Amino acid sequence: MLPPLTEESRKELVHIVHDKLETARQSARNLREKLRQQIIDEEKKKTLSEDEKYKQLEKLDKIAAEYNEQIKKLGEAKEKEIMTV
To answer: DSSP states of 15-69 as a string?
Structure first.
């Protein structure tokens, strides 16, 4: 059986959670940028119209924002769980 967490150990766990959340946000940004570049390249190759490019970029931004919101909510929930005595 594990001993109860001290205030200091709880703060350390919250710090680790924040680091993991930042890594997740960074991964999401990198993927978004990679997909964004693919869409732009497709338009340059003339396989996508300019209108379609803007529709795809808008859809990508919306999806990225949804994932960022999920990451934020998960982080807040985990922080609350850790700090609850």
So the answer is: HHHHHHHHHHHHHHHHHHHHHHHHHHHHHHTTSS-HHHHHHHHHHHHHHHHHHHH
